[in-house]
Design goal:
The chain is an alpha/beta fold and 225 residues long. Helices cover 32% and strands 31% of the residues. α4 packs across α5 and α5 packs parallel to α6. It is globular. The structure holds adenosine-5'-diphosphate.
């Protein structure tokens, strides 16, 4: 597998008044293209801070983040915006769907940069992929939590990203729906999309290629399947 993502000595501190919290403390790891990685650790250990940096939502204070060999810190704002839009898909614990839009329109939000015909074909294809083609005109609140998360995954996958960042995507789901979401993420990774998923579930972590364990802003362990 190709090296896809490399972070080295990544650090990030938050300051409020006199108090400084070292959310990330010299974190280094590499992820290959198409790898499915679980990120585990207690609340406050820096998982969300790390995902935000990996998704270009927040810059690190120090350290290097290379994507396909390119140092992210040196990329222009325009380039970062394009990467965020087309190359990274986000999935959240609370789905983050727009209630005023139906299912197809929620997916369309991620595809506004494609022309009409191509956009429509992609919406149909990705809703088919997550098994929700028959719910395209429903509003999110008319769906179960598991279905809503599948819509969120369809939205994340729609632009054919090469990186999916998922923050406890099964955290609000029952066992069966959590398993369905895991199958979709595993399928995406098998198709070549790199997936990095924060999880508190040992069961779901065990279904990934590799688990990285964090504590107090540092990596403290790693398990490979
Ligand atoms: P996790 O996702 O593992 O729960 P976070 O990355 O959210 O951890 O937080 C890591 C640490 O940084 C925590 O101690 C948290 O309180 C602190 N932190 C996170 N975001 C902020 C912020 N915006 N301002 C101040 N401190 C923050």
């Amino acid at each position: 597998m190709d090296q896809f993502l490399q972070v080295s000595s990544l650090s990030r501190a938050y300051r409020s008044g006199d108090v400084e919290t070292q959310a990330l403390d010299a974190v280094s790891f590499e992820v290959a293209a198409g790898e499915f990685v679980a990120l585990m650790g207690p609340s406050g250990c820096g998982k969300s801070t790390l995902l935000n940096i990996l998704g270009f939502l927040d810059p690190p204070d120090a350290g290097s983040y290379r994507l396909r060999g390119e140092e992210v810190a040196t990329l222009s704002d325009a380039r970062l915006t394009r990467l965020r839009r087309g190359h990274v898909g986000f999935v959240f614990q609370n789905f983050n769907l727009i209630d005023e839009l139906n299912v197809a329109e929620n997916v369309e939000v991620a595809l506004l940069y494609r022309s009409g015909d191509a956009r429509r074909r992609r919406i149909d294809a990705v809703l088919e992929q997550v098994g929700l083609a028959h719910r395209a005109r429903h509003r999110p609140r008319q769906l179960s939590g598991g279905q809503q998360q599948r819509v969120a995954i369809a939205r994340a996958l729609a632009p054919e990203p090469d990186l999916i960042l998922a923050d406890e995507p099964t955290g609000n789901l029952d066992t069966a729906n959590g398993a369905a979401v895991m199958e979709l993420l595993k399928g995406s990774a098998a198709a070549g999309t790199t997936v990095i998923m924060v999880t508190h579930s040992a069961l779901h972590a065990a279904a990934t290629d590799r688990t990285i364990r964090m504590l107090d802003g540092r990596i403290v362990g790693e398990t490979r399947l």
